[in-house]
Fold each of these.
Amino acid sequence: MGNKQSTQTRRQRTNYYGGMFLFDENEIDRVQIQHHFARESWNGNFSSPVKDVLRTDEATVLDVGCGAGTFLCEMAADFPKAHYFGVDLLPTCPNTLPHNVKFIQRDVLKGLPFADNTFDFVYVRFLVLDLPEFEWEKVIKECSRVLKPNGWIEMMEPRFGLTNKGPMSEKIVGAIQARARSRNVDPHIVDKLGGFLSSMKCLKPINSEMRVVPCGSWGGKKGQLGAMFLRDVIKKHLRFIDNILNIRQSDYENVLNIFSQEIEFYHSHFEFYRYFAQKY
Ligand SMILES: C[S@@+](CC[C@H](N)C(=O)[O-])C[C@H]1O[C@@H](n2cnc3c(N)ncnc32)[C@H](O)[C@@H]1O
């Protein structure tokens, strides 16, 4: 009963967000898939050299736009001495979290509710379709402010697009990109993240890594996860682009199946980036 009520409350409280980030059980499944896809793509949850500090009991970690808190909960199991904080615009985290994980509902664009120099590690991922281009520098500046000297910031985002596309995939990806641009969101923001990080004079050096992500079982386990990730992102966006694609809700499943067939046939893939830098 209690759980039902909290789910309902959560739905009511999140409906205001233009429908775009409506947080329901399907969305929670989606972020879990996203998390496993990310970890498998890189064979690990992060690239910054923070393992030693995370083994100490003074270590503090912040995840900005943490969603369901999947990253934080797994980190809390891997490095149980550290203290974890997640911030999200919406009440996205489960009510029950590990004792060393705290969730705070907050719009990062209004500033992070932490003092300067608080965290050893600040982590940001999968905000590519959420943040308008002109807000990224502000977010990075705020993350740098709350980072301790010698602390690390890490950002991980796909270059939202697809190489080797079939005709349906071309239409779908094009429509999502067009919708993003109409909201001042740059689906290729990864091309600018290195520049934004460099413009914070306190961060150095700026490291970057790239992985080509296969989409489809032709790419083995990583390809299967890549396909699940992209299919889920598309599924979430279909209701916003069905007018551009000239389809109805009853066509969604068919469109997704054509997409899945095309990525196998054309060996579709996309690029996935990590940027990480130290504050001095
Ligand atoms: C695609 S989800 C990614 C969630 C999480 N980073 C992950 O990897 O699973 C994007 C998240 O960013 C949050 N978000 C979007 N704009 C935000 C803002 N201005 N401040 C805080 N969180 C925001 C959304 O509510 C959503 O939970």
Amino acid sequence: MTTRSCIVCRNKQEKKDLLRLVKYDNNILFDFSQKIPQRSFYVCYDKKCLNSLGHKKYSKLLGTNFDLELNLSRLKTYFINSIKQMVNISFVREKVIIGVESVITYSKKAIILLASDITMRSENKLLKNDKTFLKLPVDRFELGSWVRKTEVVATGITSLDSNYKDIIFHYQKVFSWEN
Ligand SMILES: [Zn+2]
């Protein structure tokens, strides 16, 4: 198990549970592959630690070109694209359930993805069930297109690879509070 410390809180964690940043051409990039051979440092997938990177204290390390907001938006795009890819793969493997009623009646463990414009009524109905939810910043039409439908407010993934589990877990830690 390879561990690294977060440059902000100094907590040691497994490398895969940290976000790697690399210095490249006077820019700081997130290295999602964790393989770019450049000087690097690590930060927690945590909104507090990530936001701290915008403090003056880190400007010497990160350089003045570091744009926190731009990098957070890149991170979000990366997560959403990964989740979209995950839904796509699951769809091909017939591991998705589509629609509020189907999600509610599905009895086994599943990860439920919700569109940003789901109605309160549907959301409350779903919340009564003991399931893992992730509300995404995509609307019902976008979520629908991921599963070849016109519009979908809730879709469930019934089986996930561990790397996608990590992506969902990390996404929740950084962005789920926005919903
Ligand atoms: Zn940290």
